[in-house]
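Quick log. Single chain, no ligands specified.
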Amino acid sequence: MWKRLLALLAIVRIRQGVRAHSPLALHHLYEVHDEDDEIVISLRGHDLDGDETRATITQHPKNGVLYQLSYVYNKHGYDPKVGDLITSIPTFVVGSDSRVVYRRKNVIGRDNKARDSDDFEYTVNDGKDESLAGTVTLVSATTRKLVSSEFRFNDEGWTVVGNAQSSVRHEATRRGDMNHYIYSVDDLIDVDSNKNDRHLWKFLLPIKFTGWYGSWYGGKFEFILSSFGGDYSGVKDHWIDDQFHPLNLVEIHCESCDLFKGVTIAYPLSKTHFDGDTTRYSLTMTESSGWLKDPQNTLFEWEVPSRCSFIEVLSGITSVKILGDFTNWYESVGIDDVRWISAQSKERYQLPLCAQESPDCRKCSC
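-> predicted structure:
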């Protein structure tokens, strides 16, 4: 019924001289089981006019390869699934329902030197218009890790900001739950008249934690913090030079969001706690799970972000910071086992359709 109504609406719009809707190449995520060598993926688009869409591969996966369906599998559903290797870009998908076969190179969930996830891009065409690119993300069904830092061999490019004299140090030993980790110390103490620290240092995550992570929506931000020295008896939000500064455990910034005005979402420390003991955090990545949006004006309070604003930030991450400076005096804080985990799904997960009107989620009706 709805398809008929949409088709009639499209006809009316065309007769009125109004351009029909362009199709959407949807962002979605697939879980790859450890025992699977390959997975069949459908790249059917979403078309508001009810038109059938066909897909084109526009970017290769980084840690795997794509194949067209074999004739026998496409026609009868019998193995082998794999047909011709897709080697050039762009390549039109010839399989029914725009299906392709993804085969990994023994990297997802097995080789700790490789990326935790894989992805590729595609577009769809409804015979009239070409969509913008959609992203297909693939994760291990066992770990569901999108990206992580376990610091097994080095600091992985992590740095410290907010205290010019501090640096990250890698520790290749075990200390309780901390097993091969990084840490930093507060080397600069500059307090105001109220004895509040003006320079709060934070861990800055490396470049692999930036860019498009829309498929992270609904997932988890996990990490471990532990202190090796410091007085944590008075950890709280405070005023610095007569301006209120909330202590945020995590800050995620998108420079291009809100038409390049920039948007920062943060998880306030007041929603959880840190007393210096080894603490494992698991923050839910939805707008209603305690996150707040920076009003960019000290006269206004931080507010709960909209779903559209939250997903837009995840779709264009510029920087991520995790607080390391919890006290007004010297402290030493370490971090380990940082993981971005995708949402739980049954084989396939799709970013909410209302946020997919554009690849970067700027057009959103959630």
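The radius of gyration is 24 Å.
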